[in-house]
Structure prediction request, 307 residues.
Amino acid sequence: MILAAGLSPAWQQILRFDKLRIGQVNRADEAVWCASGKVINVAVAAQTLGEKVSLISSVGGLSGDAIQQEISQMGLQAEWIHTQEATRVCTTLLQVNGPTTELVENTADTTEAVMADFVDRTRIYANVANITVLSGSLPGNAPPDLFARIMRNTPARFLLDFRGVPLQYCLPFAPFLVKPNRAELEATFGIRLTTQSELLSTMKSLNDGGATWVVVSNGEEGVWITGDDKAWQLLPPKITTINPIGCGDSLAAGIAAELVRHDDVVQAVKFGMGAAAQNAETLIPARLDRERSVVLAEQVQIIELTF
Prediction:
């Protein structure tokens, strides 16, 4: 069983335009809504890849009601912590042959009771999960060690998909795998990584700090892996991108899904890249098909590197 836990769900609006004109009235050619945010994307992607999944997150207001309804219709096992604050709404603006624009509402502050409940429930489920994925940003008033409190004295395999000080707090508790993207890795250390050597050296510092495996993605340039004193670069398949939102979450879900089946981390990342590529081919994030992900994963190239 995979556990996906986090406190930054979102109700997602996706608008498609032929051309987006800043400062003018823009009428969308298509509009869709869905439950999203990193924690939900991980859970939904893992379930659609064929795994048994449990989800722990918080919801509130009308947007929270909509999220609960959709997740229930999917048959996904969820533990909801109800909040006074409405769940945030985020908007993705897509245009034909143009860049993707994301309008992100920050996660609202929440109460100490909600955070304590989240920590307690996640610990309980993590003890019986094959792998636990902690992902997403924390509420602005949350202590930076909130995720670390879950890991402390919890003998479980954790996959971490967040950045900055919260990630650094978790390293002493030996996470099995950490998965920032390149920009998040730079933000975590407050540096600019201009070469592959600098990238690998910074990843290795996360290994030295406690992470068994480090996986860093950077869009079309692919994914780097460090662990077991080795390093790899994996190059993604060629696809036509419809919506890139949720690719990192699908990568995390794909990795977790394969780690449930075997312990080969490089092969798990390869499958995760197939899931991420399939996500980019679809309009709504994280709604995947295992067979298509397998096909795309077979097109991933693996290059072993030297430090």
